[in-house]
Amino acid sequence: MDSEMNTGNSKKCCNNGKQSNNMNHNQIPKLNREVAGVLPASQTQVEKVLQFGEGNFLRAFVDSFIHQLNACGHFNGSVVVVQPIAQGLVDALNAQDGCYTVVLRGLEAGKPVSSTQVVTSISRAINPYTDIDTYLELMKNPHLRFVVSNTTEAGIAYSSTDKPEDRPPASFPGKVTAFLFERYKHFGGDNTKGFIFLPCELIDNSGDNLKAIVLKHAQNWQLPEDFIRWVNEANYFANTLVDRIVTGYPKDEISNFEKEHCYKDDLLVTGEIFHFFAIEAPKAALAEIEDVMPFHKVGLNVALSDDITPYKLRKVRILNGSHTMSVLAAYLSGKDTVGEMMADPLFIEYLKKGIYQEIIPTLDLDEEDLKSFAAAVFDRFANPHIKHYLLSIALNSVSKFKARVLPTIFDYYEKTGQLPDVLTFGFAALLAFYKCEEMRDGAAIGKRPVGASAKLEEYKIQDSPEILEFFVDVWKQENLAVIVNKICANEALWDTDLNQLPGFAAKVTQYLQSILQQGVQKSIEKL
To answer: Which domain does 157 fall in, by range?
Structure first.
């Protein structure tokens, strides 16, 4: 049975939390601050956080964290949300007074856990495309100190069409530059009125990239040199690492949630229990974050560091690497989801050997921390509330393998003088997955066995055209050793000639032949 933790203040409108038989769907109230039983944010908190983005991720991540800080009296501030594009959820947020429900579900040490939380940290939401004056009025707020964002990976990008007179500039960095300039002018260049930026976009060095584009806009717009100095001296642009799977609005379950909660919530968001937030900034900014936002005091898994590289490496090598080394083999064995893979003891052992015996020994990090992270990975993969399709994860597997797994193979060989069995097998599974004879509708066509029969079913291999065309061409060869040699030698794929790694091509050929002749299951049993 799931354990449940209700950290919100929502009032029950039905007996024992169950909908009355006489109450129909239209009679259920919509969630707002009155239904949640909380005062308006303007009466209890000042707006300290400016947030660009109103999507599911930030609402189930940073906004939830701030709610927990407020609930324990550690922040006493609210979030004002700005819609970064013309279409969004501003009206829906304001209709619910900024309130919404976060339902988190997953496994911890293999046991089901869940939490339900009514988040009340958002004070209001603004659409700058329809209410530019209210948006610009924000720059006069002396209490604003933090800027949070999630504008998708494409959001932190330079746009040459942005102009300082645009109301507002189209791009997110353009909006930031214009906003900062207005704030700089209003406060006369006061160095205490800058911001700590916490960009949560899924790109490497998000803060550094955002700052570079802001400075480029400032120069191209010919803004004063003193403003550029103020941007550099009065503002911190942190790099972040964010980790939580947010599954969004549960349309297939919403009626059940309405009956359970006794209110309608158009913004209800679901996600996994696991979370991790790493913030990289200069020590002065980190000290302020720790003082003003003491995440650790409410049990949140947030790391503050002047170098988050170890956390990135841990995530890429263990979480992402184990995905990449296993999903293609699992798909070729007839499985369709990560959940199906995690229900097979053979693949559990495959993952354990790959992670604990091959990946972790190559990482110069705290061993207990690595093992704890790895244990969480198994719980996350097995989460029954998240349905990950293997074929979706297989997208662009060549570049993923190069970034996530190959470095571990090289490090393992350097440390032991041997090749790692599971990771090398994972490479052979990649080659088997990319076995194709033709292109169709922009994808290469592979085939996998169906059950115990000799029947084959087609699947689409999705990658860049030049990569797919290479594999179609190379698989025209009849000699398996020649095929492996040509694939390993393609430096455009791997940035190196993998034939130079002693014994690698021969071992891959051996595993690949076994996969093609005996299937994945029997081949893994021999590892």
So the answer is: 15-305
